[in-house]
Specification:
heterodimer, A: about 230 residues, alpha+beta, Alpha-Beta Plaits, 9-stranded antiparallel beta sheet, two-stranded antiparallel ribbon, 7 helices, B: about 525 residues, mainly alpha, 20 helices, about 75% helix
Chain lengths: ~230, ~525
């Protein structure tokens, strides 16, 4: 199986440059970044607009070797285990299109070929929910009843089955929201069920999960029985 | 309750810090000036300090409220009218939106009072129609896909042609009108409208077109006022000097501010109302947002209202006299040229206290996925405004015609717009309208007017025009920032990946799917 991973980092927008610099020092030169927002943890606070919700999401491809070092540095230098600093986790890749792309993504990282499966018992899963714009509220409500901590929302555009509709000089598509929720493997199914049943039908939510092989910054979630933190 | 209080602290602390960072530098500069070069009366200084405190609170509330209410409202409305895919509807609503928002802008009334030779209602109606018309042009531009620089050449060409026929005394006021009418309430809303229209597009110009609406909307008023100036042969515009406060005790000081508050309560309510009504109509007919989102927007509107009232009261009662008096004292010194560096220093920091700037920077960060950070935008704007205040002070001291600065400035800004990435051009021309907000009108303009009085120049031709300068220089600095960013990515891209472990895959074809 793979020794290449997609590393997803969710953090505050102000700390983004620090994270990028750290990754660069480990040879991770290609990162994509986008902006997201954390979902509301506390209803009243959210209505009053007093919750800190702005997040940055960083995506990068890392090798198993560099992840080990990055994870160590995230803990030591970025103090990622302090709640609220951020979280980072890796999802295994199964294939890559073309060797130029592979080289481009991993050129400065140590890479060795191992024929072993790292996809054993993963302790965490990444739930991805794709829904129509404006329905994150009902999705997170449903997810929270099943014990989910918090999520991060990224604004997205869906092209749909019929593709983009042309209108004069523009192409129009639907606005979508992509909700990222990290949950324990044990809780995954109940959360997914809750979203499928509890979310507003108008949301048109599609939910699926990806295996998370390793994490950094989720220590509190590991130690406590009730996962209440990770507003990220 | 306790938990709510505790959890809201980080956000409140962040907002307070932001507001302090915006206002404290300018307070520090003014204090240093007051203690050394420019002796002012204690009552003006006290007014300034109390005004600054109100502005800090105002910015806190406004920035909190604008991102909760103005931004989502504009974005939803923009998305929903584009979704309708009906050209007459989009254009009709565009005109109506621009017209209604502008007609209720309090700054427009102030402008109308400055030019007595044109009937107030004529001026207000034609400026509002100008904004409406240009919002329609802006929508049409996006729909048909004409690039922004071409249109800018056309319209600014028209403006400068008209300017040749307008009496000299009237020029500065006409150019100021463009910056003045796009106020702190309309800018966030119009900007969000553009982002909303782009949010549902997938073609490659979508991101570029997110901005540029404010840019087009600031052209309308200039054209309208210039045309009126020709029609009415307007040659005079009046200058009403601000009344310098003289307070004997603390009670009088408070009375001064207390008397100002009702004026702004009314003004802001009037300018918020059309936006709320339009949005309400949209909500009933097409949007149908859920209760939670509406609740957030309502709370956000309340914050925005409170914030703007505090801000404008502080700026008008506290900052205006201080700016005017400082200008007089500084220009009355033996070394007059000191006015130029001091003005530049003030300009560098004052733009950070402009409420709409905060919204622009946030939106830019959001649309560019963080590639252009709010800080980078802030620096570009600061440098721009700093240069413009410097130039404005040069004008005050020398009395050179404003066209000597505006024509080369715009020619340069528009000509580099053909090489700068389109997104930056759109952001830059928006930034022009954004940077020239209430802070410019209540501090920089009085500063120039005060200096002009002391130098003995013609206030109408020399002091006015500050707003126009502040609206012009960001066009250049923000575009230059874009150019630098582009060059940097090009350089990075030219570094080719080395074939480190090519050997491992040497036997594979280039387009093989590599199973890991």
């Amino acid at each position: 199986m793979s020794s290449l991973y997609l590393m997803i980092t969710i953090t505050h927008r102000r700390s983004t440059d620090g994270f990028l610099q750290l990754y660069k020092s480990h040879g991770v030169t290609v990162s994509m970044r986008t902006v997201g927002s954390g979902t509301a943890v506390q209803e009243t606070l959210s209505t009053l607009g007093l919750e800190k919700t702005e997040k940055a999401v960083l995506l990068a491809v890392v090798t198993a070797e560099s992840w080990q070092k990055i994870q160590r540095d995230l803990r030591r230098k970025m103090q990622i285990d302090v709640p609220g600093t951020g979280i980072a986790f890796i999802v295994p890749l199964s294939s890559i299109g073309g060797k130029r792309a592979l080289m481009f993504l991993t050129e400065h990282q140590p890479l060795s070929w191992k024929e072993e499966s790292t996809l054993k018992d993963t302790r965490y899963e990444l739930l991805l929910v794709v829904a129509n714009q404006g329905h994150t509220g009902s999705i997170m409500d449903a997810a929270r009843t099943a014990g989910a901590g918090g999520g991060t929302v990224i604004h997205a555009k869906g092209t749909g089955m019929e593709g983009a509709a042309p209108f004069l000089g523009m192409e129009l598509v639907n606005e979508k929201e992509l909700v990222l929720i990290v949950s324990r493997t044990a809780q995954k199914n109940t959360i997914m069920k809750a979203i499928m049943e509890g979310a507003n039908p108008k949301a048109g939510a599609i939910v699926f999960s990806l295996p998370v092989t390793d994490t950094a910054g989720l220590r509190l979630m590991e130690e406590e029985d009730t996962p209440q933190e990770t507003a990220l | 309750m306790d938990i709510i209080l505790r959890q809201s602290l980080p956000k409140l602390r962040e907002k307070l810090l932001e507001a302090l960072q915006a206002v404290l530098p300018i307070v520090a500069i003014v204090l240093v000036l007051c203690f050394s070069l420019a002796p002012v009366s204690p009552s003006i200084l006290l007014c300034f300090l109390l005004g600054a405190a109100m502005i800090v609170a105002g910015i806190m509330f406004f920035t909190l409220g604008a991102e909760m209410s103005m931004t989502p409202m504009g974005e939803r409305v923009g998305a929903v009218i584009t979704c309708s895919r009906s050209l007459p509807l989009i254009l009709g609503l565009g005109f109506l939106l621009g017209f209604l928002i502008t007609i209720s802008e309090p700054d427009l009334q102030v402008l109308a009072d400055q030019v007595p030779s044109i009937p107030s209602s004529t001026l207000i109606l034609s400026v509002a129609a100008g904004v409406g018309l240009f919002l329609v042009f802006a929508f049409l531009r996006m729909l048909i896909g004409i690039s922004l620089p071409k249109l800018l050449v056309l319209f600014y060409g028209l403006i400068f042609t008209l300017a040749a026929f307008v009496p000299k005394e009237f020029l500065a006021v006409a150019f100021d009108s463009g910056g003045v009418t796009t106020g702190p309430m309309t800018v966030p809303f119009i900007m969000a409208l553009g982002v909303g229209v782009s949010a549902i597009r997938s073609d490659r110009h979508a991101a570029d077109d997110s901005f540029g609406l404010v840019a087009m909307c600031s052209i309308g008023p200039i054209l309208a006022v210039l045309t009126l100036g020709i029609v009415f042969r307007a040659s005079d515009s009046t200058y009403i000097p601000p009344v310098l406060p003289e307070v004997a005790d603390s009670v009088e000081l408070w009375t001064l501010f207390r008397d100002g508050i009702p004026t702004y309560l009314g003004e802001i309510a009037r300018s918020l109302l059309p936006i709320i009504l339009m949005f309400g109509a949209f909500q009933v007919v097409a949007l149908r947002l859920d209760r939670r989102t509406l609740g957030r927007i309502a709370v956000g509107l309340a914050y925005t209202y409170v914030g703007l009232v505090l801000f404008l009261t502080g700026a008008n009662v506290g900052f205006m006299p201080a700016g005017n008096y400082l200008g007089q004292v500084l220009a009355g010194q033996a070394v007059r040229w000191l006015l130029i560096p001091i003005g530049m220093l003030i300009g560098y920091f004052i733009v950070k206290a402009e409420p709409a700037v905060y919204v622009l920077n946030k939106q830019v960060e959001e649309v560019t996925d963080g590639a252009i950070s709010a800080q980078a935008m802030g620096t570009a704007l600061s440098v721009g405004v700093s240069v413009s205040v410097g130039l404005a002070m040069v004008r005050v001291l020398t009395g050179i015609s404003i066209l000597w600065f505006l024509v080369p400035g715009y020619v340069f800004a528009i000509s580099i717009s053909f090489v700068v990435p389109k997104l930056f051009t759109a952001i830059a021309f928006d930034a022009g309208g954004v940077a020239s907000g209430p802070m410019t009108a209540t501090f920089l303009l009085p500063l120039a007017q005060g200096a002009c009085v002391a130098v003995g120049g013609n206030i109408v031709t020399d002091a006015f025009g500050v707003v126009a300068m502040v609206a012009m220089t960001p066009l250049i600095t923000v575009q230059l920032m874009g150019l630098v960013a582009q060059l940097r990515t090009r350089k990075a891209r030219s570094v080719q990946p080395a074939a480190v472990f090519a050997a491992a895959f040497a036997d594979l074809p280039d387009d093989a799917i590599i199973e890991l």
